[in-house]
Amino acid sequence: xxxxxxxxxxxxxxxxxxxxxxxxxxxxxxxxxxxxxxxxxxxxxxxxxxxxxxxxxxxxxxxxxxxxxxxxxxxxxxxxxxxxxxxxxxxxxxxxxxxxxxxxxxxxxxxxxxxxxxxxxxxxxxxxxxxxxxxxxxxxxxxxxxxxxxxxxxxxxxxxxxxxxxxxxxxxxxxxxxxxxxxxxxxxxxxxxxxxxxxxxxxxxxxxxxxxxxxxxxxxxxxxxxxxxxxxxxxxxxxxxxxxxxxxxxxxxxxxxxxxxxxxxxxxxxxxxxxxxxxxxxxxxxxxxxxxxxxxxxxxxxxxxxxxxxxxxxxxxxxxxxxxxxxxxxxxxxxxxxxxxxxxxxxxxxxxxxxxxxxxxxxxxxxxxxxxxxxxxxxxxxxxxxxxxxxxxxxxxxxxxxxxxxxxxxxxxxxxxxxxxxxxxxxxxxxxxxxxxxxxxxxxxxxxxxxxxxxxxxxxxxxxxxxxxxxxxxxxxxxxxxxxxxxxxxxxxxxxxxxxxxxxxxxxxxxxxxxxxxxxxxxxxxxxxxxxxxxxxxxxxxxxxxxxxxxxxxxxxxxxxxxxxxxxxxxxxxxxxxxxxxxxxxxxxxxxxxxxxxxxxxxxxxxxxxxxxxxxxxxxxxxxxxxxxxxxxxxxxxxxxxxxxxxxxxxxxxxxxxxxxxxxxxxxxxxxxxxxxxxxxxxxxxxxxxxxxxxxxxxxxxxxxxxxxxxxxxxxxxxxxxxxxxxxxxxxxxxxxxxxxxxxxxxxxxxxxxxxxxxxxxxxxxxxxxxxxxxxxxxxxxxxxxxxxxxxxxxxxxxxxxxxxxxxxxxxxxxxxxxxxxxxxxxxxxxxxxxxxxxxxxxxxxxxxxxxxxxxxxxxxxxxxxxxxxxxxxxxxxxxxxxxxxxxxxxxxxxxxxxxxxxxxxxxxxxxxxxxxxxxxx
RNA sequence: GCGGAUGUGGCGUAAUGGCAGCCGCGCCAGACUUAGGAUCUGGUGCCGAGAGGCGUGGGGGUUCGAGUCCCUUCAUCCGCACCA
Length: 922
What we know:
Layout: H1 5-19, E1 32-37, H2 52-67, E2 71-73, H3 83-92, H4 96-113, H5 129-143, E3 145-148, E4 153-156, H6 157-165, H7 184-192, E5 197-207, E6 212-214, E7 219-220, E8 223-224, E9 232-241, H8 247-252, H9 261-271, E10 273-283, E11 289-294, E12 305-308, H10 315-318, H11 324-336, H12 339-344, E13 351-359, E14 366-372, E15 383-386, H13 392-401, H14 437-450, E16 456-460, E17 465-466, E18 479-482, E19 485-488, E20 521-522, E21 537-539, H15 547-550, H16 553-556, H17 569-575, E22 578-583, H18 591-604, E23 614-619, E24 623-633, E25 638-640, E26 650-655, E27 660-661, E28 664-665, H19 667-673, E29 681-683, E30 692-696, H20 708-715, H21 717-726, E31 734-735, H22 741-754, E32 756-757, E33 760-761, H23 770-788, H24 792-808, H25 814-824, H26 829-838, E34 862-869, E35 872-880, H27 885-894, H28 896-902, E36 909-913, E37 917-921
Parallel strand pairs: 1-2, 1-22, 12-14, 22-23, 24-31, 25-29, 34-37
Antiparallel strand pairs: 3-4, 5-6, 5-9, 7-8, 9-17, 10-11, 10-13, 10-16, 12-15, 13-14, 18-19, 18-21, 20-21, 24-25, 24-26, 24-30, 27-28, 32-33, 34-35, 36-37
Helix pairs in contact: 1-26, 3-4, 20-21, 21-22, 21-24, 22-24, 23-24, 23-25, 25-26
This protein binds one RNA strand of 84 nucleotides through helix 9, strand 11, strand 15, helix 13 and helix 22.
């Protein structure tokens, strides 16, 4: 009886759904294990074969853990707010909610076909009001919190107000003297400078085409990540998240989590901690000072000019009348350059002299002040002390404008380039002379601090995250404005539901789409209810960014239906955090940083017991598409096969990979593919049309998308699962090809046949032989090792070896085949369930016990030693494993073969490695 | 520029410092056959008739022994980047 995967897979999928087989228990005596996939954005084009790669791996792991006796939480949901649905809505007028629902339904259907063991009762959708109510609630907690540097954690804003009132603030600029006497608006403004969710005038990445601001992570090479539109810098009143308060903890806690080194490094880079010193330079002409930040205070005597960012606040004040026109022109020039232009000519040096001077803090010498756009306004103090001898950017600037270059550290050749290395001895440096760089840095800081010229300081590259989006399809920010003062809603007023609008575009006056909503105003309580009963107040019109909902979803799965809390204490105390998180590496500095930030914040408030969202993270590689091309001869409807195309002027056109087999075009299918090709003519080679191919990102527009549905239809879900794992190491990116899938398909049939006798299902109850037991237990050992090391490709290969061996042994015994069904169940669950049932079990295989590895079946009494001479293996000799090294050495030297290879010479040394190898050195 | 990764047959890949190429695809030969893109058997790194030699991007080193460890260099991919 052949294995009918279509019938079997459908039947078991129905069984699992009906019996809620994969439901995680909230209370259990079993140890817990939480396996999470990064939830998908439900796009209109459905899943392609790349999506399931990570899901299959996590599903295997989840199923394995269930067999190992764990209470496994393995949920799935949808990150369903986002730009594509909104873009589509703008084009078609279709409400994003409708397209989102349709897309989700399609995703669900596709996911179900692959046989994932998700606990669907816990599904979450970020665009669902029951969900975003709590996203808004967390926003309110962030608004109501500030970061107390003394306790090094977030606290309720009331503790700050208390400090301001009692004038006991021991840090900051001491602006709280008369807090109580400030107006409500002034108090609000002051508090906004401390709240973790705050409103401020911020330089934002503004994308005119998308009509919204973007976070730094959403801008790549000066253009928007989505759409690729130009992005410019613009000052706007914006909601932001004070993630910088957590910079140090986000950095430090990386050491405690088992994430890939590349992700951790990307985050370290992004946070960009740098330790140095602030240093004040007094202006020559006034009492004002320019403060700079430097990591090389040791080079202080090498300063030959000071450079300010064009946006620096002192620029207009210190520029001399003679230089004013030049400087103003330069500032205008710098301002109008888009980010993209600035990045494009990083190498081009531009700047102007202000005409003003500062005094060197130690020598008192005059130092010219320049303006240059290589200095960034947003980093440090927006001003640098230029040491052209030992900083390559200062060097380039000095060379370009012919400014002096002073050598203060030995070791370089300043006529050629700057010497940036942090080694060498200090020269021309007064009290630092003769010191090594490291010692000089220490000494310089000490002297600077002693003379109150500045102090040790840490800077981060990390910026606060802009949180508002001028978009429709996102969570409304639960804020209204009362006389210009932002106020958050009460918890019982949540969710603030996304209102209906007539169009999904900004208003004519450039307001976000939410400004189109009619009657969408905050109505305060009437005087009868104890309120003031004034006018209705305007709500905030921007919405939250895509990463808001995904920054805490891992918590919601623990308690998905809780109507009173975002997650109950009981649930989070039990489930803690994610044990295994699998997803793409593209979220390294976006989602994965924000989710860590919110986790730490919620922990500070005592709402959850963990400081990190996931203990272990694995990034699956990307599956790329292999595009196929046909070559159309210019001005014709004639296509030439790739081998002959050099004789013609041709245009390469993408062709649907589904009508190309092994680079050979299905000509009839091509003619039917599109009306315009109905009468196409072809120039063939060897009677075939051969297409060209190229590896590209899998995308609809490149016609290289392979949907998992087709694979499932043709080979079955188990085959797809095994094959995707068999492709190679999980972390590796690879182009999709189905060249090897027949091997996996054959393997499944071969495995099925092991359980058959005379064309029907039948296993024997005879006792297994030693070689049979060895074949099985060797595999069990390997599979346990492989799964626990996430080496799924090698485990598929081990299954193949095992089935090959058992086939050779003609093994048909229950003692072997029953455990075999269990160990393969995580990989090929449908097949395993069917075998399990046929073996006479009435329960699902999901909770069977994973077999222990019994080492005694693997013990051998002899070993066939490779005997090598000078490292080259010459022959094999079997010895009893009870023999010790000396005995083997003695034995092996008496062999005729050995004598032959020794060729009369005396062995210099004989190395015997027990159970491994014999090496004779001549 | 900084950081991370990866280089092994025709292809995807495998090898706790111990026989390089497991497993699979492809290919070659054969068996069976109601001629199928089924199934089964054998072969398949390169050079060589053979004995044998050479082989894990290149060059050094450590070691009895290196794909694996160290140094160096090249190539490809990814992330960050006038961050003082």
